[in-house]
Amino acid sequence: MNKNEDKNYPEVDLDQLYKINPNRFVISIAAAKRAKQLKEGIRPLVEVDHSRPYSFILIALKEILEDKIEIEIEETEDGDNDKIDQMDRYLEEELNKEK
User: Fold this and answer.
1) In the chain, where are the structural domains located?
2) Fewest Cβ atoms nearer than 10 Å: which of 8, 34, 40, 86?
3) Nearest in space to 27 (alpha carbons), one of 11, 40, 14, 37
C-alpha cells in the first residue's frame, strides 16, 4: 500500500480486477453484494481503521483484488450468464467506438 493511500478509501486498479474476471458486470455484482454485507456489519477481510468511516464498495473491491473473497458464477438454465456476457461485449464495443 502506498504510504499516502488511505486504507479506508483505497485506490483500486481496474485492470487488475479485470485480470481476476474480465467481465465488468460480474465484478460489479460481486462487489455490490459484498459492499452490502459490509454495510450490514460484516467485518472487512482487509485492514481498515474502524474509528473512521470507510467506503464499502472500495473495501469490497480491495478484498476481491487481494483474493480475500472468491467470485463464484452459478450456472443457470435461463441464460442469464449469456445475457451478461452479451452486455459486456456490447459495452466494450461502445467504449472502443468512443476512443
Assistant:
1) 14-98
2) 40
3) 14
Tell me: pLDDT of 16 over 90. Answer: yes
Give burial (CB, 10 Å; 0-12/13-18/19+) of 20. middle
Q: Please, are residues 34 and 57 in contact by the beta-carbon 8 Å criterion?
A: no
Residues 6+ apart with CB under 8 A from 28: none
Asked: is 14-98 a CATH 2.130.10.10 domain? The reply is: no
Give residue 52's pLDDT.
Answer: 94
Mean pLDDT confidence for 3-12? 84
Q: Measured between alpha carbons, how far is residue 83 from residues 23, 30, 31, 48, 89 in Å?
A: 12, 17, 19, 36, 10
Between CA 86 and CA 61 the distance in angstroms is 23
C-alpha cell, 81: 450468464
pLDDT tens-digit readout, 35-80: 999 999 999 999 999 999 999 999 999 999 999 998 887 766 666 6
